[in-house]
Amino acid sequence: MNELLLPLAVWLQVSVGDLQAVTTPLLVLLVLAHEPLTVGELTALLVRAGRLGTANTGLVEQALLAIGAMVRRAPDPDGEEGYTVFHHSLRTHVLGSERVGETVATLRAALAEASLEPAGDAAELYLYRCGVRHLLDA
After folding, report:
1. What angle do CA 56, 38, 124 make, to 5 degrees?
2. Which of 19, 23, 34, 52 falls between 20 and 30 A from 58, CA-CA?
3. Which long-range contacts (CB under 8 A, 24 or more apart) does 47-53 make?
4. Residue-level pLDDT, tens digit, the chain, 138 residues
5. Which residues pair with 85 in a beta bridge?
6. Phi and psi torsions of 50, nearest 5°
7. Contact at 8 Å (CB) between 114 and 45?
């Protein structure tokens, strides 16, 4: 490979791709959530928000591994294993960060929109429980 293209190829492998496109919205979704979310709920909410084209739970699981130091497992109200941010200070930091301000605004609006019609996918029970809070947050 041309010596000039090699750094670009390495940068593309590390910085560009589906995993990178999902990682930030996934973290922001966990920050905005009012309770731990399962992989299925996260996937459904990312699809509703237009951040995933299909219900690709494998990609969501990879993204959870990528941000593993920032999240922890916790049971959701249904007793299923969900994910939440590791510490409240991370939530505060993300919500105040200019680097992800557009993502926060977009996902906050998407959660409110999803709350208007909660039925139909894996996020249904979460939206019935927390939808009103998301509408108030918007």
Report:
1. 85
2. 34
3. 47/121, 48/110, 48/113, 48/114, 48/121, 48/123, 49/25, 49/106, 49/107, 49/110, 49/111, 49/114, 50/110, 51/21, 51/22, 51/25, 51/107, 52/22
4. 556 666 655 555 556 688 889 999 999 999 999 999 999 999 999 999 999 999 999 999 999 999 999 999 999 999 999 999 999 999 999 999 999 999 999 999 999 999 999 999 999 999 999 999 999 998
5. 71
6. 80, 15
7. yes
pTM of the model: 0.88
First to last CA, the chain: 50
